[in-house]
Structure formats: structure tokens, C-alpha cells
User: What shape does this take?
Amino acid sequence: MTLDATPYSQVGTDPQNAENEFTAAHKPLALPDRQNSLKTGIGVYVTVHGHFYQPPRENPYLDAIERQPSAAPFHNWNERIHHECYRPNAFARVLNDRGDIVKIVNNYEYLSFNIGPTLMSWIERHDVEVYQRILEADRKSCERLNGHGNAIAQVYNHIILPLANDRDKRTQIRWGKEDFRSHFGRDPEGMWLAETAVDYATVEALIVEGIRFIILAPSQAQRCRPLDTSDESDLQWNEVGGSQIDATCPYRCFLKRDQNSQPSQNLEAETPYLDIFFYDGPISRDMGFDSALSSSHNLASRLGQAVRGDHRPAQLIAVATDGETFGHHKAGTEKCLAYAFEDEFAHRGWTVTNFAHYLSLTPPTWEVELKPVTAWSCAHGVDRWQDDCGCGGGGSWNQQWRRPLRDALDWLRDQLIKVYEDTGKKFFRDPWLARDEYIQVMRDRSSTTVNRFLAQHQTHKLTLGDRTDALRLLEMQRHALLMYTSCGWFFEELSRPEGTQILRYASRALELAGDVAGVQLEKGFVKRLALAPSNVDSFKNGAEVYRQLVISAQISFEQVASHYAISSLFTPYTPEERIYCYDAHQLDYQLQRMGSLTLAVGQLQLTSEITRETSHLTFAVLHLGGWDFHCCIQPFAGRRGYTSLKETLMGSLKQGSAAQTILVMNQIFGNQSYNLQTLFAEERHRIMQLLTQETLTRLDQLYTQVYRDNYGVLMAFHRDELPVPRELQVAAEIALSHRLLLALRSLEQETSDASDRLDASLNYLLELEAIATEAHHLHCNLTALEAKQILERLIRRSLWHLLQEVNSETAEREIQRLERLLDLGQQLHLSLSLAQAQELYLQWLPTLREDSQQPWLRLGQKLAVNVSLTQ
Assistant: This one.
């Protein structure tokens, strides 16, 4: 989370005061001493560390993030922050004084960074291009910095290690290491601790697992002294508990030593240790909460204030903050970083490095002793994650719920340990080693990986049922760790999404324990949650939060089957489909329509990708028209019974009575039924849109008619600058928006496969330009999100075809078409995102400059790319 509970101000980066430092002399300086410093450890080194992290947001039952309306216009907050931060830093712009793009910089090549494992997996799944840029950045930093990459690991799901038991500490570190290896192909040298929370038990766990260094806040140091000196007076400890530690050098933290003992010559061989870097606190805070990132010049000047003028041979100016600062919390600041890395720091003769590289050049000469238990965002040790310490509070709300929540989860964890050990020894030679290595399956749930994992850890050849129970146990433990994700305590109220999410993980762990061992722990857990007071009257306490927000979100195989059944009325499913993390095998399906009624009957085999649990179900769903659905599910009871069921239901439908069909369904299946409201949110919203489409089409036609009938009147009002009747203005905007979408959809369809894209698109382009002109004259605001998205896709696709299939005969016309599409976006005020088009153009710019053909360069100017041949 953040350095402080205070929200970040949204500071934009104006090219006129940020990146306009660009001059014709824009080239990193090849200073000899700067190059030598990569190997000699002499001079000023700069490290900017970004802690990139998002809490896991996946539905525990679906292994997917569902739509989050607060993240609109994006699907969820991961997607929104990715658009604002993670992707922009992979393609950061360096601008000239006109705001044109001069080059694109991969900031991850210069940032020291950790990316939370759950976030990294999301990026890998949803934007492989950015994922590859991150991996490439680490490889390039390894090449530049003598084999030391910028990336470091992170404890797996951001739990507060000082509050974890020893076994959970070990698993979190091991999962973090293995996840890191699976992405970057090397062992991590350093590890980021959630909230930089540390105690000596955590230091010991890190040492045992081979971690070389960590990064802490200066406030976490207690005292320090020189490592080895012949001067007796220098052996005394220097108290630095008030954030007074010198952060320009690394420190060595020994695991065990009498506080008054004197270091010996062979101390390193005698005593286990962990090296520690302390980031510069004041500058790091200024980056997050002040104006240090308002321009690259300001950033360099602020860092320069920390440079010591005492002629020491080497010093490190290190800062650290949430990676989301660079673009999400402070819009556009990834450009500030890019210019600083490429130009500003070089002009000052500074070497951009990372902690591992600096440590290889300049080993610690000082020893540090840490305060007992600390974190970077709590002034009370780690009480923010267990007590009402005041951190993260606001207004009249209290956080008295924190301690009961922690106690309830600790009780549940201990109960689950018994379940895991007692049942796990039936399947695993070493249950806890199996848990530590389960990360291999979490990263790759293919049958090959699961089979290999089970073969390695099983006590005997497992039956299908045993395999399912073994995986259930491991999933139970995975959720038992996820329920400790720090975000659940960070804010002011238990019922926030973060608190609800960790309770959902707890609920899933409870359910799995019941499935595999038959234990019933939920009542005891809910009883303890009742001691956690909520600040929201409608909840009263944690038990009610659990009942209202957690139990209602639980998902069964029957619900997955009902989702499939209702959706099948609108989606022609193939025999094999993927429904979130379930494989759906359609064994039989029959659909019959009778007037306004539609009935589907089928049998379905569902298999969980996570636990390999399988369920064979029969379903029947009746659509009565509009929003009314009646769906029933039951276990498959044999072919004869299924055939009879199907014949009975189809026979009842022929009577044309919805009431009779529902009565028969209830007689066969029982009174448990599902409807549109019980669908998963994503599919429910899709079907709602389909069901309203006919109504919206009729309304579009109505408004279009009103607009056509009153076009002259509208023009008269605007010509005479009179207030336009709202009803007529709305009719014009709806009618033109409808025409715009129809024309754009047609243009996209015509040009997607057409061999002659130019001829296919001409008429639609003329229509779109006419709509833009009409909207301008009538002062209509046509800000349809779909129109913006389609036009962005058209521009990107057209540019790709143009560059990949360069044809000198048609290039001029293709470029003109692209320019017209770009102009259209401006005329319609759609605020198009041209990021990917600009990146594609810049990849080809060296080749285009060789041709130096005016149309190509003109297109670059349209895309706000600096195409000057002097660059």
C-alpha cells in the first residue's frame, strides 16, 4: 500500500514545464567516469524503486476479476491502473518542446522494481506485450549492470510477515521466489516485504531462504556502527532511531550477536546476516505527496540535495514509493521518469543502478540494528494490521474491528492446520513441503504439471477421488494465506471491498475443509467475527458483513450449470466450453420454442480446473420472454430417467402454458430454481443488454424520426443563437450517435477482411465526415464509448496493414485514409488514445526516414511523433 493513508493528489505533467527540457542536444552523455562507474563503484549512483502491487481481486470461485463499476470506463481496477500506469511505464514518452514524441523509453529498464506475483500473473494473462517488455527490461538491466537485474521478488500475496507464523513466513517467501523465477528465469537477489514490515524472525526466514538484501524505510533502523575498525572509539553504537540513518550506503544486519560484542575479522563467516538498504525518506515522500515529479529537472534537483559533498568515493541516492505513483496517482509522471533516466541524470554524471548492482560494487561497511517490529506505513509497529492504532482512520469511524478480525483469522488458520496435517499425511509424504511447492501448480494448472507435482509428493498412487481431495487441501491452504492479504486491514472499515475480499478467501477455505474432511468450522468463525464492530449501521459487525457480502457470493456447481443453461439461450455453445475456471462438456442439449416460450433441456459435465472436481448435472431452463427465466438443476440420475424427464418437459411445453411447464419443472426438480438475477454478473449484464436491444432500437428510430422532422427548426434555433428545446437537442444527439455507431461498425466490418480496404471504406468515411459536420453545426456532443473504441481499433489496424504491406502504388491513398480517420476523431471530440499507433509508427520510423517521403512524415506529425530527420 502507500507510504501514508492520505490519498495522492492527481498531479498532471504539463509538457510545457516537464518534458520541454528536451533540446537538440538530447542524447545521453557518454561520460567516461560514468561508464567506468558501472564496474568500479566510484561516483554518485541513483536508484528509483517502484513497488508495483495490486491486491488480489479474483472471485475465489471463478478465478477471475468481475466487473467493478467504480473503475469505469474500465472493467476493473487492475485494468484501469494498468492503462494509467503499468503500460505507460513500458512505453514512456520523451517529448520535445512542441509535445511531439521523440522516443519511447521502457522505464522498467532503469527502475528498480518489484511487481506483486498476483499482479504479474494478471499482466501476463491480459497484456502479453507489456509482460514481455517487463521481462526484456530485466534482461537488459542484467546486461548493463554486470548480471544484476532490476527486478526483485516480493512475498507472495502481501501478508504482514511479522504477524505470520514461521511456516507461513517460509511459504510466502518460497512462493515469492518461485514465482519470480518462473517469470524472470533467475533467482532473486532481493525481496520486497509487504509494507516493508520486518522483525528479526522475518530477517531469519529471509536469510534461510537465501535472500541477500531488503529495502526498508529509514524510520525502521534503531542504531548502527562500523563493521570493522581498529579504533575502539568507533565500536560504539550510533543511535539513529529518529530516521537519522545515512541512506547513501548499504548496511549489514546480523541475525544473532550480543549487543556489546566487538566485531571480529572473520565476522561474515561466523554470523548469518542480511544486507539492508534504507531509502531516502523525505525525497520519497515528496515524490508521492509533493512536487518532486512535476518535471525531470525538479526530480533531479531534489535528488541532488541528498548528494553528500564529503568526497566519499561512492554514494547511493535511493528512493522508493508505490509504483502506481508513476502514472496512476500522479498522471503523466512516467514521462518525467523517462526523461530523467535518459537525459537529466546523465547530464549530472550520475549512474542509474539497482540495489543488487550497487551491493556488488560497494559491500556494507556499517552494521545496523533494527527496531523490534516496524513497517513503512504505520507509526506503531504493525498495529495497523491488528489494532485500532489510528493509522488509516478517518472522521468518527474507528478500527476496533481489526483485532477481532485478526483473532478470528488466526483461529481459523490454526483449525485448518489440524485439518491439513491430519488429512494431508494420507496423500503427501511431507504436507508442508507440498504446500511450499504448490506454487508450481498455481503458476501452471495444466494436467502435465498437476500430474508431475502429485507424482513427486504423493505417499501412494492416488485415485481420482484422492487427487481431488489432495488438490482441495492445497487450495484450502492457498486461501488460508490469501485471507491474510494486508489490504484487508489497511483502510477504515471492515466492509470495504478489501475486507470483504479476505473474508471471501476465508469462506472458500472453510468450504474446502468441509468438503475434504467433513469439519464444520463456519459457526465458530462467524461467532468470532461478531466481535468485530462495523462502522456501518446496516452491518453492525463482522458476522453480518460475512452473511450479507460473503455467503451471498458463494458459488456451487449448480450455479455454474444454471449460468450455462440460461446463457445457452443466447449463445450457441459448442460441445466443449470454458466457463471461467470450469470446463463444460455438453453431453446432450435440446431447445424448443413455442410462441413466446423457449425451453432448453440438457445434461452437462462440469470440471473444476482448480481441484479437478467433476459434477454431472441435468438442467432445464424456461424463458417466458423479457426478464423472466425459470431454471432448475439436479444431479444426473441415469439415461433412462433423463430421457423420461426430457419427454415430459417437452410435452408440457406443447400445451403452450408457462404455468403448466413451470409446475412440471418443479415436480421433477424440486422448488430450488434460478433466474436472471442468479447469473454471474458479467453474463447477466450481457443478457440484459441483449434483452433491451429491441427496445433501444425502437427508441433510436423514434428519436431519429423526431430529429428528421425538426431538423430545420433545430438549425433555426442554433442560427439565431436561441436556447434549443432540450427535447429536440437530445433527439439530435441520440439520432446522430446512432448513425455514428452504425457507420463505424459497418466500416470496421467492411475493412476487416476486404482485399481492397480503400474502396470498401470510402462511402463510410464520407458518411462519418458528414455526421461530424452535422454534429458540429448542431453543437451535439457524441461521446459514445463504443465509437471511440472502434475508431481506435480502425486506426491501429489500418496503420499495421500499411506498415506490414507497404505498397508504393496505394501508400499515398492509405495514408490519406488514415489521416481522415485521425481528423474524424478530433472533429467528434472523442479524445482518442493513439498510444499503440504511435508505438507502432516509432518502430518503423528509422525505415521511414530512409525513404523520407513526405506522406509518411506527414502521417507521423498527425500522430504527434517528431519526424525530424535531424534527430
